[in-house]
Each structure stands twice: as C-alpha cells, then as structure tokens.
Amino acid sequence: MTISEKVAYLKGLAEGLDLDTNKSKEGKLISVMIGILEEIGLSIEDLEENATALGEEIDAISDDLSDVEKAVFEDEDGGQSGCGGEDDDDLFENECPNCKEDLVIDDDALESGEVQCPNCKAKFSLQSTDECGCEDEGCSCHHHHDGEDEAE
After folding, report:
1. Which of 12, 97, 111, 152 has the fewest CB atoms within 10 Å of its CB?
2. In 13-101, at which residue ranges do the beta strands (DSSP E only) sit?
3. Domain ranges, ordered by start, for the chain
4. 102 phi, psi to nearest 5 deg
C-alpha cells in the first residue's frame, strides 16, 4: 500500500466519523491534517518517480562510460593497450632533453627518427635501441657503441 493509498484510507475513516469540519474544532483539525498528509504523499510519490528516473539515467551514463573506457583503454583484440598492456613492446619511454618530461613514444615515431615534445614543443631525434647491435629487442645494455667516449 502506497502512502497516497494510506492517506486516502485515513480520509475515508475520517469521513466515516461524520465529523462536522465547518463547526467542530476537532473536525477542522482532522480535515487540515488529512489535507497536509495528501500533499506530503503526493510529494513523496514525485520524489520516488524522480529518483527512479535519475537511477535509470545514471545506469545509461554508466553504460556509456563503460563503452568509452573499452574504446580508450582496450585494443581491437580486447587486450589492454598503453602502459601495462600487451602492446607495451610497441611503446617506450624517453625523456625530453629540453624539459625532462617523460614521453611515451611508439614505433612509428621511432622509425621517423624525430619526435616533438607535446609539453615544450621542442623537436629532437631518436636512436632506436636496435642500432646497438644487440639481438634483444628490449635492449637495456650498458656497453659502449662505436664512436662514443669511454669514461671508465
């Protein structure tokens, strides 16, 4: 039973008492109280409807956000891309020599040989780690290349 139904039941009981709402103080009081209860019941029903509508809108927004997250954070195969994902072998970090900002650089930029820092807009050239002659793709060796000064 909703609040409005309960108020309607209470109103029926009051009418069944056959109180004089024009002359009797008690009748006037009960009549005004029932009127206030009717307004409160209608307000509560409106609030419940609004809350339900807002909940449905929040669900729709949540679904849309989930779709956006999938589009942004997953590649076509469903795996994570970017930092920590399966495509990390296509990306590496390099520090901008001008502003010292860490940059994430992909293979295409590496092949072009030049990168523009999005932070300070400075352009600088890159050297692929494959040029050191190591067989390992993720070269992190510390040996010296031809033409470099040996400071040891």
Report:
1. 152
2. 91-95
3. 3-73, 86-132
4. -75, 130
